[in-house]
Automatic annotation (TrEMBL):
Keywords: Repeat. Pfam families: Pentapeptide. It comes from Lotus japonicus (Lotus corniculatus var. japonicus). The lineage of its organism: Eukaryota, Viridiplantae, Streptophyta, Embryophyta, Tracheophyta. Coiled coil: none annotated. Gene3D superfamilies: E3 ubiquitin-protein ligase SopA (2.160.20.80). This is Thylakoid lumenal 17.4 kDa protein, chloroplastic. It comes from the Eukaryota.
Amino acid sequence: MAVNVSIPLPRNGLSIHNHSTKRSCLTTSPSTLRISCSGVGELDGSECKGRLLNFNGIKSVACGILAACAVTSAAFPVTAANQRLPPLSTDPNRCERAFVGNTIGQANGVYDKPLDLRLCDFTNEKSNLKGKTLSAALMSDAKFDGADMTEVVMSKAYAVGGSFKGVDFSNAVLDRVNFEKADLQGAVFKNTVLSGSTFDDAKLEGAVFEDTIIGYIDLQKLCRNKTIADDWRVELGCR
C-alpha cells in the first residue's frame, strides 16, 4: 500500500539535506513537500527511504500523518464503506478456526492470517466459542444464534449483517465491532464492554443491557437505535 501526502511549502523557507533515514520518506520540489510511504503497516518492519527535512515541526507532522495511516490501514482493513472485503477464504476448515481463535495483536485487531467466519453457522454453539479471541474476524452473514459467547474478545470484528439472536455476550469485550444491520434480538450484553462498537440499523428488540460498559459518545450512538426496549433505554440513560 502507498500513502502520499502533499504539503505546500515556501520556495526559500527550508533547507534540505541529502541523507536517508529509516523513519522518514520525504522528497521535495521547489513548492511542494511530498511524503510517500510504501508498505505502511506491514508487520515485517518495512522501511521508507528518502530525504529528511531539518525543520523539526514539519518532520513531526509528517511522521504523525504516516503513523496514523499505518494504524488505520493495517489494523482494520474493513472500516470504510467504500472498501471491499477480501475474497471468501478457500480454507476448508475456516469455520472451525473460530474454536481456536486469534490471539495475535488482539487489542489492535492485527493478525497473521485472516479469521474468515463469513457464512459460517454456529447456531446453538454452547462451549467452543466461550472466551475465544476473535480479533478482526470477518463475521458478516454468519449465524451465531443461541451461542454462548461469554467472555469473547471481538476487537475490530466486522459483523455486518450477521445473526446473533439470543447470543450471551456477558463479560465480553466488543471493542470497535461493526454490527451494522445485524440481528441481535434477545442478545445479552451483561457487564459487556461496547467501546466504539456501532449498531446502525441493527435489530435489538429484547436485547439486555445490564451493567453495560460504554462511553458517553458511544452511548449516544447506541441510543439512536429505536429498536431498544423502553425500559433498557431508561437503564442505559438514553434521552
